[in-house]
Amino acid sequence: MPPGYGLLISEFEFPKVFFRAEAIETALGCEGLYIKWEGSNPTGTQKDRAAYRHILKALSQGYDTVTVGTCGNYGVSVAYFSRLAGIKAVIFIPSRYSGSRIPEMLHYGANVVKVDGSYEEAVERSILAAFDEGWYDANPGGANEEVAIEAFSELSSEMYSSLGKAPNVVSVPLGNGTTLSGIYLGFLRLKASGLIDEVPKMIGATTAYGNQVAFSLRYGRDKLIDYGISSVRETEVNEPLVSIKSFDGERALEAILSTGGRIYEFTDEDLISFSKILLEMEGIPALPASASSLGALLRFLESDENVSGPCVAVVTGRNVEWKMP
What we know:
Layout: H1 5-10, E1 17-20, H2 22-28, E2 33-37, H3 47-60, E3 65-69, H4 73-85, E4 88-94, H5 102-107, E5 111-115, H6 119-133, E6 136-137, H7 146-163, E7 169-173, H8 178-192, E8 201-207, H9 212-218, H10 249-258, E9 262-266, H11 268-282, H12 288-303, E10 311-315
Parallel strand pairs: 2-10, 3-4, 3-6, 4-5, 7-8, 7-10, 8-9
Antiparallel strand pairs: 1-2
């Protein structure tokens, strides 16, 4: 058994931080607004949930190396849990990205491979390397893509447990669509089990400068349509939300359309303003891209007077220090 395996199985638990955003409610005149805060996870984002489940599966199948393509956050998560489990991590990342989280990946012992190309090309390189080298593939769209969907489905149960019922609306930052799709799946299962009557309206929050799911819905499609790279404007602020090829975008579209939800697109200036609201009013150091979920929820409430609480924004941040047990 690799070092750390017992610790992963028996001792690790994700913090369950869920609270009512009373200061924002008072300031903006809304009610029933809640935050599902994922910034208390080990590396500060919800990506830790997927990485944790992938590493467990890799260990159970006897792998000694795991690989992933990333724009930053997910790579840090995979590096962290690989280190915790005592296995190797090989992280592919586009060389043109800001690389602000590369030092953390290296700190956790990952081998970082820079790719001259897009995020999607980094993922493709990682998938090919997994096949050629016999590594565990933790990529979206890869051989084990269902693992991340299952991991994020746990967020639904946590929201249900915190509220004692299902929220009416759930807003989620939208990149590949994986987190939103997983949460939707979790609520579908709660409904099938008889614990809830209705699945919440699913709201996607993303950048105005390049997301395939938003682009497809903007043109009234229920299937993904091609989004040209020439239309993308990628920045350090919107990197987590940009997606030329949304690996779980079809599922996300289904979740949004079947629940009567929407997608809201924001400029970088919008994203920064939402993060300031969360910091100043609730003391939450949210990433601007992640704070999009609050902005989308507020826009939705403004546009539909018939919607009432509870409404939940899933928010992440990375106000964490590098750490390793």
